[in-house]
Structure formats: structure tokens, C-alpha cells
Amino acid sequence: MNWNDYVRPAGRAITIPHQRNAGVAIATGEVIAFCDVGGIPEHGWLSRLTAPIISGSATATGGPVRSLRPSSYGTLNDLPSGSVVRRVVTCNFAFSRALFDRIGGFDERFDYGSDTEFGWRIEGAGESVVSVADAIVTIDWGSHRRQLKRDLHYGEAKARQVLLCPGQRRRILQDSPEVLVYPLLFLTAPFAVLGALVWRRWSLAAPWALGCALVYGRDLRFRRPHGAMLD
Fold first, then answer.
1. C or N: which end of the chain has fewer Cβ atoms within 10 Å?
2. pLDDT, tens digit, 9 for 90 and up, residues 15-49
3. 128: left (phi over 0), alpha (psi -120 to 50) or beta
């Protein structure tokens, strides 16, 4: 096993993509697997996750990421085996070194969200990230306060993806309409409250309430849909 006593570049407080690239650089194998700090892989996780790559049936794979405690994230990438993983998360992810070299590694302009952008470039190269349903990782996302802080970082990542990945903007809005919907709901909330309670004009509050209901309905896939919305 190789250990890299990583030293971050000057001027960078967050170096997640840099560390990922550094890890690949010192790895000696032809298949690379990632699991986040705090992730708890199930027995046999590594062999299951990498088997399709070793056999040559896939160049990249991803498995489910379960939450150890209630969270707004639910289970990420809870997909049947063989399905295409549309949102790459390095908490449970493997790929061939040849693919990594081909598409150029993780984009170091990002703080958070470089794994998702890496997945988009895999698709752009004509490859797919294949789901391995029984390669499961469980992770403790931390306290509610920690999850809120992470939500903020993820929101910043979405904004940076919109800025740096113009070819993916339509997809970002289709997959994550909350990027647009949540700010609109937040900014129009005062008018909805004033319309309903002060001006007695329910027509101003009704669209806002409908928007909240639609967002809540979309978040029912989470174990805490109200938590997802509040976060």
C-alpha cells in the first residue's frame, strides 16, 4: 500500500479534486476504486465493484451509498445492476486507469462537485458508469448541522457546474430543478405571506404554495422529504 503525505497547493482551502488526482497518480493498479473517509463498505465490496471492469464489460462502475442515520440524501444511486449511473459520487466509484488518462482526471477548478463533472466527461467519451447494486457503501453524513454545511457546498458546486459546464446546463436544470425553483420560492415567500395574511389576495399565495407542494412531492423519494426541502 502506498501512502501519500499530501500537501495542498498554496491558496487552496479545499482540494478534493487535487487529492483524487494525487491518489490516482501514486496508484499502481490498472483499476482505481474510491470510497470516502467515513464510508463503510460491505464485505466483498471491492471485488464486486471492480469485477465488471476487470472482466472488460465496463470501464467504470458505481454502487449504492446508504445513509447510516436519517438524512435528506436517502440512498444515492439505488439502481438495478447494469443500469447507467447518471450521477457519479466518489464515495462508491471505480474506473480503469486507461479511462482516467483518456478523459483527463478530475477538474481542479472545482471545490465540490468534480466527481459529477467527471461522470459527464465519461459519458462524453462514449462510455457509461455501470451500476453494481450489491457493491454497497454505508456512510455517516454527520449531524444535521454538518449536513446543512454540506448542502451549502453542494449548492455552490451546482452554481460552478452551471458556470464551467455550459453543455450540461439543460441537464442540470432537468435533473436538479431546485437550482432554479428553490431560489424562486425563497425570494417570493414574502409576497406569498403578505398576499395571504395582509392583502387577503390568495391568488398571490396559491402559486407559491403549489411550487412548495411540487418540490415536496419530488422529494418523497427521500426518507425525510421535509428535511430535504428545509435544508
1. N
2. 999 999 999 999 999 999 999 988 999 999 999 99
3. beta
Per-residue pLDDT of 187-227, as tens digits, reads 888 877 776 677 666 666 777 777 777 777 766 655 555 55
Provide the whole-model pTM. 0.80
**In the numeric block, which cell numbers belong to residue 121?**
466527461
**φ and ψ at 63, to 5 degrees?**
-125, 175
Single-letter residue type at 128: S
Place of cell 461522470: 119
- Closest residue by Cα to residue 61 from 27, 4, 29, 99: 99
Residue 27 CA to residue 97 CA, distance in Å, equals: 9
Q: What is the pLDDT of residues 92-140, one digit of tens each?
A: 999 999 999 999 999 999 999 999 999 999 999 999 999 999 999 999 8
Cell of 131: 451500476
In which residue are the cell numbers 398571490 written?
A: 204
| 217-226 contacts at long range (C-beta below 8 A, 24 or more positions apart) | 218/177, 219/72, 221/74, 222/71, 222/72, 222/73, 222/74, 223/67, 223/70, 223/71, 223/74, 224/70, 224/71, 224/72
Question: Long-range contacts made by residues 44-47, C-beta under 8 angstroms, separation at least 24?
Answer: 44/134, 45/135, 45/136, 45/137
Which of 69, 81, 46 minimizes the C-alpha distance to 138? Answer: 69
Strand order in the sheet with 129-131: 31-34, 93-96, 60-62, 129-131
pLDDT value of position 15: 92
